Amino acid sequence: MPTNSTESMQDEMDRIVIRYGSTRRLLQRPKSYEDAIKTAREHFSCHGTPTFHARLKVPGQQAFSTDQQNLTKTNWAVVAPQISILLLQQGPPSQVKNETASIPVAKPNKVYKTPSVSAKHKLVGLKAEYIKVFVTIKYGTTLKKHFTIGLSKPLETIFKAFANLVGEDRDVLRFYFAGNRLDEHATVNSCYSRLPPGGTASITAAKVLKIAIRDGEVMKYFSLTSNTSLRVLEKAWAKEQGVGIGDFWLAYKGKMLTLDCKAHDYGIDSGDIIDAI
C-alpha cells in the first residue's frame, strides 16, 4: 500500500469523540495540550482556558473505562494516546479589576447568531457520507482490526485494506454482518438503520478454504469458509463415500476434531489434510 494512503488511513482512524455539554463531535485527536485548547475554542466556542477530563481505553479491549481522568499540560503526553472520549468544561472567566462597571442594556429584537462551525464537523443535518463511524472486523478467534469510514461509503474500501493487512487475497475473503454475507456495494447504512456518529459496526471476516479429507488411498477436496461448522465436512464426506454419519471420525494432525467447532478454531488453512478414521 502506498505510504501516503497508509498515513491518510491512520489519520482517519486517529479520531476521538469530543463532548461539550450535550454536543458531541468526532474530531482529529489533539496532538498537544495547546492543540486541545485550540480545538475547544474553534469547534465549541469555549471562552477562557477549558478544563479537560477523559474516558480512557481499557487495555486489550474495545470498551472504554467509565472512570474519568483529569488532563493537564503536565500529564497530557502520557494520557492522550489512551483517550477514547474527551470531555470539555468551560474554564473560569478571566480575572477583572474590582471596579464598579455599568451593565449594558440588551437591545430589543437583536437576533442571536450561532457561532460558525465548519460544515465538515457539524453533525446535525450533515450528509451521511461525511459522518464517520468505526468498523471493527473480527477474523478467526482473536484477530481484530479497526477502521473509520463514512456511513454511506462502500465497505469494499476497508475490505481491501483489511485483506492487505492480514496478507490474504481479497478474492478468498468473505465478510458477514449478522450472519449475512456482504457484497462489494454494502455500506454501514445498509447494515445499521440508525448507527450514531462515532458508533461502532461489527463485521466478521472468513477465508474460503480448500481442504482435503483422506481415508487411506482415497482423497477428496472440499470447499468451505473458515467460520463454517466442521459438521459440513462430515456430511459432505458421508455423502461422497456412501457411509453413515457417526461411522467415522475426523482428525487433524492426530487430534480428533470436535465437529461443532469451526476450521479457524483449529487453525486449519487451505491445502491442509483431514483424516477420516
Low-confidence stretches: 112-126
Q: Give the strand content.
A: 25-35%
Biggest sheet record = 9 strands, mixed
Q: What portion of residues is helical?
A: 10-25%
Q: Structural class given helices, strands, pairing?
A: alpha+beta
Bulk shape:
elongated
What average pLDDT do the residues reach?
77
Task: Give the N-to-C terminal Cα separation.
Answer: 45 Å
Rg (C-alpha, Å): 27 Å
What sequence of helices (H) and strands (E) makes up the elements?
Answer: HEEHEEHEEEHEEHEEHEEE
Number of helices: 6
The number of E-state strands comes to 14
Q: Could you characterize what this model shows?
A:
- The protein is of the alpha+beta class.
- Helices cover 19% and strands 32% of the residues.
- It is built from six helices and 14 strands.
- Strands 6, 7, 8, 9, 10, 11, 12, 13 and 14 form a nine-stranded mixed sheet that branches. It has a five-stranded mixed sheet with strand order 2-1-5-3-4.
- The longest helix has 12 residues.
- It starts with a helix and ends with a strand.
Provide a concise account of the structure shown.
This protein is α+β, with helices and mostly antiparallel strands.
Topology:
Blueprint (H helix, E strand, L loop, with lengths): L2 H11 L1 E6 L2 E6 L4 H12 L6 E7 L6 E8 L4 H4 L3 E7 L42 E8 L3 E8 L5 H11 L6 E5 L2 E2 L6 H4 L8 E16 L2 E8 L5 H11 L8 E3 L2 E2 L16 E4 L1
